[in-house]
Amino acid sequence: MYFVEYREHSNQQGGLPVKALLVIDMLVDFIDPQGALYIGPAAEKVVPQVKSRLEKYRSEGNPVIFICDSHLKDDIEFNLFPPHSVEGSGGDDIIPELTPKVDERVIEKRRFSAFVGTDLDLTLRDKGIDEIELAGVVTNICILYTAAMARMYGYKVNVPISAVASFDEEAHNFALKEMEKTLGVTMI
Q1: Helix (H) or strand (E) holding 151
Q2: Please, what's the b/e burial string for 141-152 (b: 16 or more CB within 10 A of its CB; e: otherwise)?
Q3: pTM of the shown model
């Protein structure tokens, strides 16, 4: 592994490492069959898996942070992908099955990585978090690039294979391998 662990992993809460779940882009436009960038049949399979991870973190009292695409109407990302998750459109809403609790943070993003242009790193540091788990969509886009930046910032990153999905199975498998072999992400 080529990444230096430049965070001291001594943050403890009740003797256990402090960790957080990042629920990424579980939004109407990706998960609902009528959504603007529906990921296809993988959506049906990933929702209960993400919900299970969410329930686990909640029951353990670990922080949960929702990361949500929220684009401007003329966002440059629409040069690559059809318009989706436009702020205020309803397509940028978190699916009802995963509604955040009042005390759970929701961070909006406009780029693939949840760290670009957001206060995610500051939020994690303020909570003493040095380990994150990524669940949601799309494996080969927002999951991969969030994992890459998290590793560069020195976070330990875990990805439950059954709780991430993509519209492209080949790209999904490539991203899982890339995260594990190149970035040192732990697959669970």
Answers
A1: helix 144-152
A2: bbbbbbbbbbbe
A3: 0.91
Q: Report how far Cα 150 is from the mean position of its chain's Cα atoms.
A: 11
Cα 6 → chain centroid: 22
Our measurement of the distance from residue 104's CA atom to the centroid of its chain's CA atoms, rounded to an integer in Å, reads: 14
Give the span between the Cα atoms of 151 and 104, in whole angstroms: 23
Tokens in use for 27? 């939004």
Q: What is the DSSP letter of 182?
A: T
Model pLDDT for residues 9-38, shown as the tens digit of each residue: 444 455 544 899 999 999 999 999 999 999
- Give the start-to-end residue ranges of the domains of the chain: 17-187
- For residue 25, is it left (φ>0), alpha (ψ between -120 and 50) or beta? left
- Residue 136 pLDDT > 90, yes or no? yes
CATH of 17-187, one of 3.40.50.850, 3.40.1190.20, 3.40.50.720, 3.30.70.920: 3.40.50.850
Residue type, 55: E
Q: How many CB atoms lie within 10 A of CB 37?
A: 19
Rounded to whole angstroms, how far apart are CA atoms 15 and 183?
Answer: 27
**Residue 160 to residue 103: CA distance in whole angstroms:** 24
